[in-house]
Amino acid sequence: MELLTELPLIILIANVPHPVDPPAAVTPAAPLRVHAWKSRPTGQADARWEASPEALRYYLNTADYAAARGIE
User: Fold this and answer.
1) Looking at residue 44, what is its pLDDT?
2) 42 Cβ neighbours under 8 A, 6+ residues apart
3) Under 8 Å between Cβ of 48 and 5
4) In the prediction, which pLDDT does 57 show?
5) Of the four, 14, 29, 51, 58, which is 20 to 30 A from 3 by CA?
6) Rounded to an integer, what distance in angstroms lies between the CA atom of residue 11 and that of residue 18?
7) 7 φ/ψ sector (left φ>0, alpha ψ -120 to 50, else beta)
8) Tens digits of residue pLDDT in 13-70
9) φ, ψ for residue 63 (rounded to 5)?
10) Dihedral sign, CA of 25, 26, 29, 30?
11) CA gap 16, 20 in Å, rounded
């Protein structure tokens, strides 16, 4: 899974079996490896910027929110 975020956030990851799985199917969770890095913000030159109307609305709203709060 890849998660892209344009604003600071906290992520909680629970590596446990699903609670509605039958007990016979419950096995210990496998080890989890997480990689995180900081990259440049998505800009108008990126293909993702206008990938869909929802994406464009997201990026414009995020840019407005960040600018109003002085977030880079």
Assistant:
1) 86
2) 4, 6, 48, 49, 59
3) no
4) 92
5) 29
6) 18
7) beta
8) 887 777 777 766 656 667 788 888 888 888 889 888 888 999 899 889 988 988 898 8
9) -60, -40
10) negative
11) 12
Give the phi and the psi of residue 35 in degrees, each rounded to 5: -120, 135
Return the pLDDT at 36. 87
pLDDT, position 54? 92
Read off the tokens for 59: 């990026």
Which has the closest alpha carbon to 6: 34, 52, 40, 36? 40
Cα distance between residue 49 and residue 22, in whole Å: 43
Q: Are 29 and 21 in contact (CB under 8 A)?
A: no
